[in-house]
Amino acid sequence: MADDVELTIVTMTFEAANHDGLLAVLSKYVVLSRQQPGCRNIDLCGGVTTPGSYLVIQKWESPDAQRAHFDSKEMVEMAEACRGMLKSKPVIELYEGLSAHDLA
What we know:
- The structure is a single chain.
- The protein is of the alpha+beta class.
- The protein has a single domain (about 20-100), classed as Alpha-Beta Plaits, CATH 3.30.70.
- It has 3 helices and 4 strands, in the order E-H-E-E-H-H-E.
- The chain has helices at about 20-35, 65-70, 75-80, and strands at about 10-15, 40-45, 55-60, 90-95.
- Strands 2-3-1-4 form a 4-stranded antiparallel beta sheet.
- A hairpin with a 6-residue loop joins strand 2 (about 40-45) and strand 3.
- Helix 1 (about 20-35) packs antiparallel against helix 3.
- The mean pLDDT is about 90.
């Protein structure tokens, strides 16, 4: 990865046991987290082929910004609020952004 590209991407996949409750928790989390330092964007997506599944896609300007967010009040509150609303624990993936010229 080139030194000038330092985009960190996180995906979090949730399977709802309580559809309405989880949607409310994740919606609040996304809105509040977009205001965090270093946040480039956060989107909440709902599953089409698997109703009741949700995907949160986060883009951070650096690994440090992403790590700081995972210790943030918003992240902790969201995790605690999800108790009893999930079929299983969320799947969390961490990616680094690659641009086309980095692949050459």
